Amino acid sequence: MLIALCFFVIGAIVGASGPKKRGRAKKNSTDTRVYLQHANEFSYDMYGKHPDAQFVKGNVSFLHKGIVLTCDSALYFQQTNSFEAFGHVKMRQGDTLTLTSDYAYYDGNDEMAEVRHNVILTHRKTKLYCDSLNYDRIYSIGYFFEGGKLVDGETTLTSDWGQYSTADKQAVFYYDVRLKNKTSLTEGDTLYYDTRTSRAHVVGPSKITTKEDVIITEDGYYNSKSDQMELYSRSTINRNDGKVITADSLQHNSNTGISECFGNVEFDDSINKSAFRGDYVYYDENKGYGLATKRAIAMDYSQGDTLYLHGDTMRLFTYNINTDSVYRIMQCSPHVRAYRKDVQAVCDSMVMLSRDSVLIMYKDPILWSDGRQIVGEEIRAYMADSTIRFAHVIGQAFSIEQMPDTVHYNQISSKEMKTYFTDGQLRLNQAEGNVLTLYYAEDSADSTLIGLNYLETDTMRMYFTPARKMDKIWACKHNGVMYPISQIPPDKYFLPGFAWFDYVRPLSKDDILEWRPKKEGMELKKEKRRQAPRNTVATLQKN
Questions:
Q1: Rounded to whole angstroms, what are the CA distances from 312 to 279, 504, 515?
Q2: SS3 32
Q3: How far, in Å, CA of 520 to CA of 522, rounded?
Q4: Rounded to whole angstroms, what are the CA distances from 255 to 221, 387, 415?
Q5: How far apart are alpha carbons 39 and 63 in whole angstroms?
Q6: Which long-range contacts (CB under 8 A, 24 or more apart) does 470-477 make?
Q7: Which CB contacts under 8 angstroms, 24+ apart, belong to 102-107?
Q8: ∠177-182-187 over CA atoms, to 5°?
Q9: What is the pLDDT along the chain (543 residues), one digit of tens a residue?
Q10: Residue 142 to residues 22, 102, 149, 398, Cα–Cα distance (Å)
Q11: Domains in the chain, CATH or no CATH each
Q12: Pair 350, 333: CB distance under 8 Å
């Protein structure tokens, strides 16, 4: 009894100070004391470095507001409601939070633990490793500096410093941040991570590397479990196959291969020398399906001059994907317009078949090349290495060539028309079925017009020189007449159905976005073709 009384008197005299308190708002005014629950040895050193401290050693245990802290030894500052803990320091709060280290200073008034050396904060299934950490019990936040590593299942995050909240399971990492899992590596300067959803938010210049992509972003969300990404602030996806996608915002999943892009979308394929621009794109890499709308423009620059193609909606379908027999079909409609320096086209809908290397234009298609215009019910262009080799005009075919004086026109109309090219240059034009022709004869000396040839036949072939000048004409049984240039009847200048649609012709790559329809009443109406009647069971029985 006497010994206990002496300790009490000494503590009352010298227990006036401890480690200096921080100026910090208390959670409330009912803070309780830090209690020393157990120690094997107790002592004071009134003339030592800590005369106001009680030295405790062996199985030391403190209790404060629901947490239990154990250690090998400690300095207990009863007057300041704090202590320093040494050796095998362990703080436990219920069965969800454990904090271990080699050293800790705990202030019961501020409810702040400063832990150092070999620090491990364990919160349910999440572990935070660092060398220096301050844990704020009032706000349930641990602040680490001098480097830290958070392990959440198969996800590991490291940075120079940061914080982790045990209340909402949110973590923030700053400087030299790295998030790594089985499928990706994320690097940046600032990253927010939610351990409940495994969702990370990167802020500032950041890079996400996966097996298939390298993503550059300054504002993005990434789910480390599902590989789902939401990217903002003009982010870029660099694919290993040479494709690059940039957009104002992107939703991308490297696991499923699905990307959805919004606003000023730029897609570039350096290997196939093609590109795309638009305001909305959806693409499924695994299925090879793509959808593009809102000012969509496809580009092909494999042949020097770039071909620009626009339609209100573009769709891409891939068949036999990941096989040697893979092929693709692209659909474009409506308001289709195309431009290249040497060729332009408009139609209502277009289909491109990679297997047959054919481009098919439907509903009021028009094709221009220099001063030549071709119209028909359907136009098919067969390609070879992105260069046209054969064009087939089906139904109401009409070819018009504007002469240099822009007043006279060479004209051919027929049921069908086939045009052949060599190295992209027109060499043969063959018209079949009810062929009508108007073409001007030129003086070989100065190319002045000297007459007009009118020809009616069933089949006609027109051969052209490499300079695209008419070389010769072949026709089967035909009727024709030649008019001197000064004696051409007024009704012979144009064939029936003649129309020059220069006002709808695309003038530049930017002009393809501006749809200009034909004048009212000029739309081409499909002709009904007579077909042999099909046999039915009833007709066969009669016979």
A1: 11, 17, 10
A2: coil
A3: 6
A4: 15, 37, 52
A5: 12
A6: 470/410, 470/439, 473/439, 475/435
A7: 104/69, 104/71, 105/19, 106/34, 106/62, 106/64, 106/69, 106/82, 107/19, 107/21, 107/22, 107/80, 107/81, 107/82
A8: 20
A9: 333 333 333 333 333 333 444 445 455 546 579 999 999 999 987 777 888 889 999 999 999 999 999 999 999 999 999 999 999 999 999 889 999 999 999 999 999 999 999 999 999 999 999 999 999 999 999 999 999 999 999 999 999 999 999 999 999 999 999 999 998 999 999 999 999 999 999 999 999 998 888 999 999 999 988 889 999 999 999 988 888 999 999 999 888 889 999 999 999 988 888 898 999 999 998 898 999 998 899 998 877 788 899 999 999 999 998 888 888 899 999 999 999 888 899 999 999 998 888 999 999 999 998 888 999 999 999 887 767 888 999 999 999 999 888 899 999 999 999 999 887 778 899 999 999 999 998 887 787 899 999 999 999 998 888 776 777 888 888 899 999 999 999 999 999 999 999 999 999 999 999 999 888 878 777 766 555 555 555 555 555
A10: 17, 17, 13, 79
A11: 33-123 (2.60.450.10), 362-517 (2.60.450)
A12: yes
Evaluate whether 55 touches 49 at the Cβ level (below 8 Å): no
Q: How far apart are CA 190 and CA 206, in angstroms?
A: 8
At position 471, the amino acid (one-letter code) is: D
Write the single-letter amino acid at 525: K
For the CA atoms of the chain, what is the radius of gyration? 41
Which phi and psi (to 5°) does residue 165 adopt? -100, 120
CB count within 10 Å of CB 208 equals 26
What dihedral do alpha carbons 456, 460, 466, 471 form, nearest 10°?
-60
Q: 299 - beta bridge partners?
A: 275, 308
Cα 380 from Cα 359, distance rounded (Å): 6
User: Which residue, among 239, 238, 242, 285, has the nearest Cα to 260 in the 3D structure?
Assistant: 285
Two tokens, residue 264: 């000023």
CB atoms within 10 A of CB 141: 18
Contact predicate 285/259, CB 8 Å: yes
Predicted structure pTM score: 0.78
In DSSP terms, 215 is beta-bridged to 208, 237
Which has the closest alpha carbon to 438: 463, 464, 412?
Answer: 412
Phi, psi of 530 (to 5 degrees): -75, 135
**Interatomic CA distance for residues 5 and 13, integer angstroms:** 13
Rounded distance between C-alpha atoms, residue 163 and residue 172, angstroms:
5
Which residues contact residue 477 at a Cβ distance below 8 angstroms, ignoring those fewer than 6 apart? 457, 458
Distance, in Å, from the CA atom of 295 to the CA atom of 311, rounded to the nearest integer, reads 8
Place of tokens 């620059």: 301
CA angle (241 as vertex; 235, 246 as ends), nearest 5: 15
- In degrees, to the nearest 5, what angle opens at C-alpha 113 toward C-alphas 110 and 118? 170
Structure token pair of residue 540 = 């066969």
The amino acid sitting at 52 is D
Cα 412 from Cα 262, distance rounded (Å): 46
